[in-house]
Request: fold
Amino acid sequence: MSLIHALVAKGSTILAEHQAGSRDFSQATQTILSKIPPNNSKLTYVWEQYLFHYISEGGYTYLVMADDAAGRRMPFTFLAELQQKFTSQPAASSSTSDPPAYAQQGTFGPVIAQLMTQYNTNPPTDELSRAQAELAQVKDIMVQNVEQILSRGERIELLVDKTDNMASQATAFRRGARTVRRSMWWKNTRILALSVVVALVLLWVLLAQFCGAGLNHCGAK
Reply:
């Protein structure tokens, strides 16, 4: 999955968004959104293996979170088409100066979802060809590490999800380690029991050579 989370916002107020997959990145995207300056700009923020690409223009922000494997051309092509679809709808021109959060989730949320699915499964070749011609502009878009814009408290909030995942992995590791130890204990026990049986058989064979199979010759002596 290349595109993970996309949204359209006015200032720091999210008007519509869509998230692909089960992992929740809303805290991360909200934090990044709050750091975007009000002037027209294009920027890529880097956070671990994820990239937050955005276009800010006319008071609106179009943001998409993507895997770093997606590169930059495809996400910015997605954002350009997302911006075009948003500005072409009648609701965009009639929006109030301070719309409530998720004011267009019902109408534009499905548009974001459909567009993300399209770009994740079969990106339009015409759009990507056009983006290839504009690649020089994308190269000029600045890349900044998220750590440079976050305070210590915000870093902690962003790391909560990562810490939870690490804790889950540690629990699974401990559970697996106990299973392995239990399996090894049974294996060692079986080997020990088998060794005892083999030793008794060898002892019987040795004694049988001198005392007979029933060991009665030794008793008679």
Remarks:
- DSSP finds eight helices and six strands in the chain.
- Residues 16 and 107 are 8 Å apart (CA to CA).
- The two ends are 85 Å apart (CA to CA).
- Residues 154-161 have pLDDT under 50 and may be disordered.
